[in-house]
Amino acid sequence: MATRSCLCAFLLFLVFAFQSPIIRANIFPLPPRECRQLSFATLARFEFLSQLIQLRTEFLLRSSIGVGINDISPGLIQGGPAPIGAAIATLDNVTRGIIEQFGLNGVGHLRAIVDVTALNPPLPRPLIDVRAEAFANVLGLGGLVPPFNVYNNRLRFLLAANLLTNLLVQYEGAIAPAIIGNDEQRLLSGIERTNAAELGVIRAQLYASVNATVPPYTLTVRNLTDIIAETVNLRGRCDVKEEGLIVPLQLGAQNRTTVNVVPADVNSLAFTRIETEVLRIIFATANATITGGLLPSGLFGAAFRLILALRLG
After folding, report:
1. pLDDT at 11
2. For 49-78, what is each residue's pLDDT tens digit?
3. pLDDT in tens, 148-181
4. Is residue 209 domain-resident?
5. What residue spans of the chain are helical by DSSP H?
6. Average pLDDT for residues 71-94, to the nearest whole number?
7. How many domains does the structure of the chain reveal?
8. Structural domain span for residue 60
9. Is residue 26, in this structure, part of any structural domain at all?
10. Smallest Cα–Cα separation from 135: which of 69, 205, 83?
């Protein structure tokens, strides 16, 4: 009798341990189709990531010191036209130094990707549009009068840098569990930790002026981060993952604070975003297959081609 009981228990264990995806889906409902993690090879994910890093790095370098990635590391990325609309931003010396370092960090990350993965230099370079108008559209501030310009005010610039950095960190967090290879895992972990620290610095700088009015508007930094968060979440189409610097008490850490310098979920865990979410936001179209915004011609590589082929808008 004891043997039969043990056998039954073992069989029951097998049923639950190796249950089919259909059974698991009934127990743990799948997210909506537009929010499901996609199956890409590790190399395809790094190829996608490298282009997001290029977007942010070109913006930071050209805004702070007026040079691009290939000026720092010749031949690292493909040649071609410089990013559209790049300009040196009006920043104080401290902020300029910080942004310059973050841009140089991005060059290092691209070089590390080339060193560790099978991606060879020059890396594919997407067409980048960092005009003030493009940023205003992506941030959901295109209707402001006078037009919102990220380049002629420190706080406005930091709002743009915050969004790009947050999207980068969220994407890195999303793909981390799927990366194959010890070296590749260490590479992504190192990049993600650096970018997360940079995000903390940017949001701390913004929070220091959270109640300051951003000229020439009557809106404060808090107001603008709320507007941006609402726009980004609507376009991302996969729940609330972008948050302002001040949140209601019931949404704050452990329901005890309204301060939200470090955005996170109810358990203070970082949010993640998959490829299609990131593209919907950067394109400013709410559709990962309709290009626009900061990457008007889309991206290169297997990941973006599959998104287009499967019409994963």
Report:
1. 45
2. 999 999 999 999 999 999 999 999 999 999
3. 999 999 999 999 999 999 999 999 999 999 999 9
4. yes
5. 2-17, 21-27, 42-64, 69-72, 93-116, 132-139, 154-175, 182-207, 221-236, 275-282, 302-309
6. 95
7. 1
8. 39-309
9. no
10. 83
Burial level of 237, CB count in 10 A (0-12/13-18/19+)? middle
Q: What is the mean pLDDT of the chain?
A: 92
Q: Which pTM value belongs to this model?
A: 0.90
Which three-class secondary structure state does DSSP give residue 33?
helix
Residues 6+ apart with CB under 8 A from 122: 75, 76, 77, 78, 79
Take residue 85 and report the two structure tokens written for it.
Answer: 């609309």
Chain position carrying tokens 């010191």: 65
The answer to the question of residue 54 being in a domain is yes
Q: Which amino acid is at 166?
A: N
User: What whole-number distance in Å separates Cα of residue 158 and Cα of residue 261?
Assistant: 14
Show the tokens assigned to 30. 């799948």
**Tokens matching residue 272:** 């993640």
Considering only CA atoms, which of 52, 178, 42 is closest in space to residue 124? 52
Residue whose token pair is 């990457």: 295
Tokens representing residue 87 in the block: 């300009």
Higher pLDDT, 298 or 27: 298
